[in-house]
Specification:
The complex is a heterodimer of chains A (94) and B (325). Chain A is an alpha+beta fold. Helices cover 18% and strands 22% of the residues of chain A. Chain A is elongated, with a radius of gyration of 21 Å. In chain B, helix 4 packs antiparallel against helix 7 (154-182), helix 6 (128-145) runs antiparallel to helix 7 (154-182) and helix 6 packs antiparallel against helix 10 (230-248). Classes of the chains: A alpha+beta (94), B mainly alpha (325). The structure holds fe (ii) ion (2 copies).
Amino acid sequence: MNKNWPLWEVFVRSKNGLEHRHFGSLRAADAEMALNNARDVYTRRSEGVSIWVVESKNITASNPEHNGELFEPAADKAYRHPTFYNLPDDIEHM
Amino acid sequence: MENQEKMNDEKLKSLEAIFEAKIANDEKIEPKDWMPEKYRKTHIRQISQHAHSEIVGMLPEGNWITRAPSLRRKVALLAKVQDEAGHGLYLYSACETLGISREEMYEQLHSGKAKYSSIFNYPTLTWADMGAIGWLVDGAAIINQVPLCNTSFGPYARAMVRVCKEESFHQRQGYEIMMTLCNGTQEQKDMAQDALNRWWWPSLMMFGPTDDESTHTEQSMKWKLKRKTNDELRQQFIDQTVPQADILGLTVPDPDLKYNNDTGHYNFGKIDWDEFWQVVKGHGMCNKERVSARKNAWDNGKWVRDAAVAYAEKKSDKEEVRKAV
Ligand SMILES: [Fe+2]
Ligand SMILES: [Fe+2]
């Protein structure tokens, strides 16, 4: 048999109240091993209180070549931001 | 046809220009972004060799874990060596994002195609070597690695931030070992001096050939794989390490070492570059031993890796059957 361990992406919540953040990746035979390895590789100094592991092949990523059509339309929509609107200087609580 | 080629050529040139401008502007390059083939290749080489150095670097110290003189020293050394394994793993996965597989990297290490830091081809003869390695070798590694926290390739920079956070304990535990020996019996102090004598020059070689001999420097500076030249980093290491040796009451094994009032730096003696190249070419004291230890670990662990895959497959088959009924 010659099968390589799949790649997993590791997400760690550093403390309650914060979101899980991508920490890196690792190789493991299954989800349980990925969790155990993630604990040893990414949280040796109390960096986390919760870990997610996701097999990398299950992630669909956007292609940077399409960044133009994906993200540029937001650039000319200044009216989505509060600073777009003109108000008198002396107005309060707004 | 000719026109098409010309167009492709022009397109490539403009892509490269955008790419270089991004880096000059301190923007990061991420794995799925377009990059020149040379950038990809250079990064695969540097990151994988860095990873190999972390992994092979466990061997000289692993040699002393069972013989650490106290439980305090033993847990510290164990934690340090485990960190180095972690550093190797961060770096292997960063490198994989460039399209090389982990197996290919291992294969390159085991076949001798890929290099790792030459320092790990020296033997660890006494307990004092654990002190000297932490103090000098990790000290030199820190100087090499800190600038890489701002390098242009995102996954490499992020791995380096994590690595650098962990390195300072490595150096401090080494220095503490040296300090304890130097405050001990004459025999213990001699042991510390002997370790410094053997590790000093190889540590200076860790910064690589002198600037006029170094081939990659200019390109590496542009891509922020380097911020300072080999000679500048080496000088920085000497300037900060000599006073630390003074505090220990040890003598740096270089008769030409002298503080230069005009430059504010230490002048130092000639480095034996023949020795350096001998070790790089595979003729160091432990080259064969290190690579064969790595290879054996990989080969003898094969049945464990296979069993883990078989177990994972069996479990997921069972799960599918369970869902079906
Ligand atoms: Fe390290
Ligand atoms: Fe280290």
